[in-house]
Design goal:
796 residues; cell membrane; MscS_beta-dom_sf; three-stranded antiparallel β-sheet; membrane; Mechanosensitive ion channel; five-stranded antiparallel β-sheet; 6 domains; alpha+beta
């Protein structure tokens, strides 16, 4: 950082130059008058020139010392670059070694940027001074073109020579800086090329490392010169120490002071935080397990933080320690959730993933140690067989095991199979399988328990009356995003086992498709997230509709249905369009699809599109709405829901009819409740001839007035409609507030009329007929008869 300290005097020199300029006698100033504008310009240019020259002089003074410090730091960085080059050439394609090399290159690039940046800023400052000097040179040249005489001309000539000298010195210094920056820029370029080469090796390194078999431990070649292999392994560790121990410490073990201090701070912070949580929530189930979660997570963060600033050898070791503590924290979270949910045996029963965790930690330790073959294979095989035997001796649980316990029942056979794979040369692959299986089951265990926790909260929230919007957001968006986030976190962690973030991003970018349209893992994740966002948005909007209906009483159910369906189709339409463009579709391909759809509509989809358009007309035209009572021919029914394709109606016999929307648009439909649910009903009644018609009129009005559902406005009406064959015919017309009560009200009115008429002595006649038989000429009654043929005669 010596460069930064060297540039600071530049700003102080500016103020000093101004002070010196104010105290210095100026020969031209004595001859200046108010009318001599060009002389004022000359004085201004003189001050600017002196200021720029002072700034340059201050930089020129500190520049040699800055250059010495710069060369020294650059030499150290070049030495580190050469050491990293050697290590890169010695790596055998182990993804973990390549990741450590990338870490070293990243640190080296950061130190190079910190070295070059102040020099680059100084070069830019010199460039600005050079531009100012050139501007002043032009000003003096223009003043000299007027050929002033006397002292003014001499001053201009002096400053022109002075500017020329400053420009030469500035050009010399600037060239010196450019020459000094050349090696630094080449160093940065070389580091960038090395990073690119190492990252390019990642694409195939993990495949070769994990899928290429090593010599079997049963072969004689694997045991050739075992002592030499151990000696080379020890010397490689010594080489790594010699490479990087001099960077900050004299020994790699001295670098453990920082992670140890960070671990101690993490443990203290976890203890304090867990203690406050226990005091704040004294009845919290599993509070002691929460303390373990905080401790393991804090230790993982401490070691990860220490690894980021550690040299090569310590970086690998501290990274492994961080992963092990993070894995322990993950199992502790799962254990805490089990106790919090009150699962049977959660306090005493061991986690079924403990054997996998043991192998996961041992595998990471063996991988970072880099023991030579076949020693590492033998140790790993022994660990696998020991874990298989331990799983076989594990007693079965009395209660019904969960999904994770059922999956881990196959661990015994999995460990045995992987031990055989390690013996035949696939030890690296068995390491990878153990890591992937453990991470998958650990994250699945947490995901399942978080899902049960969210389900329990939703049940309690519904019972407590929590708003539908909050429950919809938690159940429809938060829960899926948590599960999706855990999945990608597990995938990212597994990809670090393959070497680093590069593999993870390669997996996200892996695309399956045809031409421009394709689907990758990352795009699939965005589609899943968009699906849940659209579904939650629709549910949230529908949850606000009851509140909107309360705030706007003038909005009927039809308006609410229109808003609900419009929001639903708008959200899903936007999701579909976004999904198409996310998959790579463009306007041209969409136009082709639209053309194909138009042909399909013309041939076979006419009715579907017709019903769809008719549904939109019904929704926005609101001629038929949910709750309306309509008449289809002779059938009376009530509208339940207007869909895009059809309308659902229910008859008063409780039969559901799906009516195509096009039939409702093109046919004649009677809507009894459109805009107004009131309906007029009529009751016809006949009284005997000779009845008092005024009294009959009064009694009919009385029957209408006694019924509670008959509206007083519009008022009932009684009409004397006809002199019938057997009766005087009257009609009582009255209004009912709801068409659904029209038939029952008319029936009850008839009961009232019958009772009132009987009490008043008004009779309701029944039809009577008189039959006359006309005899022909010469026909008469027979003797002994009663005047009618065939009556009163005795049988023969």
């Amino acid at each position: 950082m010596a460069m930064i300290r060297g540039v600071r005097p530049l700003f102080a020199a500016c103020f000093m130059a101004i002070a010196i300029l104010a105290a210095t006698p100026r020969p031209v100033a004595a001859q200046t008058t108010e009318g001599d504008d060009w002389k004022l310009v000359l004085r201004k240019n003189q001050e600017a020139l002196i200021l720029q020259a002072s700034r340059f002089k201050s930089m020129e003074t500190v520049l040699p010392r800055v250059l010495r410090d710069f060369r020294s730091e650059l030499s150290a960085l070049e030495a580190l670059r050469d050491q990293l080059t050697v290590i890169t050439s010695l790596t055998t394609g182990n993804p973990w070694e390549l990741r450590a090399v990338l870490h070293g290159l990243d640190r080296l690039r950061g130190r190079g940027d910190a070295l070059v940046e102040p020099f680059r800023a100084t070069t830019e400052e010199l460039g600005r001074i050079f531009e100012q000097i050139e501007t002043l040179e032009g000003e003096f040249s223009r003043q000299s073109a007027d050929k002033p005489e006397g002292e003014v001309g001499q001053a201009i000539d002096y400053y022109q020579r002075y500017v020329s000298g400053v420009k030469k010195a500035l050009t010399r210094v600037k060239g010196s800086l450019d020459r000094e920056l050349g090696p630094a820029m080449r160093l940065q370029t070389g580091i960038a090329e090395m990073e690119k080469n190492v990252r390019d090796r990642f694409s195939g390194a993990w495949k070769d490392f994990f899928l290429t078999p090593a010599p079997s431990v049963l072969s004689l070649g694997a045991w050739a010169e075992p002592g030499l292999k151990m000696e080379l392994w020890m010397s490689s560790l010594g080489a790594y120490r010699s490479f990087f121990s001099g960077e900050q410490t004299t020994s790699p073990w001295d670098g453990l002071a920082k992670p140890a201090a960070l671990a101690l701070v993490a443990l203290l912070a976890a203890s304090v935080l867990s203690g406050r949580i226990i005091r704040r929530f004294p009845g919290l189930a599993g509070a002691l397990k929460l303390r373990g979660v905080l401790r393991f997570a804090g230790l993982g963060l401490a070691f990860a933080w220490a690894a980021a600033a550690s040299p090569f050898l310590l970086f690998e070791g501290l990274s492994v320690a961080a992963e092990i503590f993070f894995a322990a924290a993950l199992l502790s979270v799962s254990r805490f959730l089990a106790i919090f949910l009150g699962e049977p045996g959660a306090d005493d029963a061991p986690n079924p993933l403990r054997h996998l965790f043991f192998l996961f930690a041992c595998g990471l330790a063996l991988r970072v140690l880099g023991l030579p073959s076949p020693y590492s294979e033998l140790i790993w095989t022994a660990l696998l067989l020991f874990s298989a035997a331990s799983v076989a001796r594990r007693p079965p649980r009395d209660d019904t095991p969960d999904l994770i316990a059922l999956l881990t029942t196959a661990d015994r056979w999995l460990f045995t199979l992987l031990a055989l794979a390690a013996v035949v040369g696939y030890a690296n692959l068995s390491h990878l399988v153990i890591s992937g299986w453990f991470l998958a089951l650990a994250f699945l265990q947490c995901s399942l328990r978080l899902g049960r926790l969210i389900t329990r909260w939703l049940d309690r929230a519904e019972a407590a009356g929590v708003s539908l919007f909050a429950r919809g957001v938690v159940g429809g968006l938060v829960a899926p995003l948590i599960h999706l986030g855990l999945f990608f976190l597990a995938l990212y962690w597994f990809c670090t086992q393959l070497g680093g973030r590069t593999v993870f991003f390669d997996i996200l970018d892996f695309k399956i498709g045809y031409r421009d349209i394709g689907l990758s893992v990352g795009r699939l994740a965005l589609l899943v997230v968009g699906f849940h966002v659209a579904r939650t948005a629709v549910a949230a909007f529908k949850s606000f509709l009851p509140e909107a209906a309360r705030l706007r009483p003038e909005w009927d159910q039809g308006i609410l249905d229109v808003l609900s369906i419009s929001a639903t189709y708008a959200a899903w339409g936007l999701y579909v369009l976004s999904g198409l463009f996310l998959l790579g579709a463009n306007f041209t391909s969409l136009a082709v699809v639209a053309g194909g759809l138009s042909v399909g509509i013309g041939f076979g989809l006419q009715n579907i599109v017709n019903n769809f358009i008719s549904g939109l007309i019904l929704l926005f035209g609101r001629s038929i709405q949910a709750g309306d009572t309509i008449q289809l021919g002779e059938t009376w029914c009530q509208v339940k829901k207007v869909n895009i394709r059809n309308t659902v109606v229910q008859t008063f016999d409780n039969a559901t009819i799906f009516v195509p929307n096009s039939d409702l648009i093109t046919g004649q439909i009677v809507n009894w409740t459109h805009k107004d649910a009131r309906v007029r009903r009529e009751v016809a009644v006949g009284v005997a001839y000779g009845s008092d018609t005024e009294k009959v009129r009064e009694l009919l009005f009385r029957a209408a007035a006694e019924h509670p559902r008959v509206l007083s406005e519009p008022a009932p009406l009684v009409q004397f409609i006809n002199f019938g064959e057997s009766s005087l015919d009257f009609k009582l017309m009255f209004w009912v507030a709801d068409v659904a009560h029209g038939v029952s009200t008319a029936s009850e009115i008839r009961f009232l009329i019958d009772r009132i008429f009987r009490e008043a002595g008004i009779s309701i006649p029944f039809p009577q007929r008189e039959v006359r038989v006309v005899s022909g000429p010469g026909d008469g009654p027979k003797p002994g008869g009663n005047g009618y043929p065939g009556l009163g005669q005795a049988p023969d």
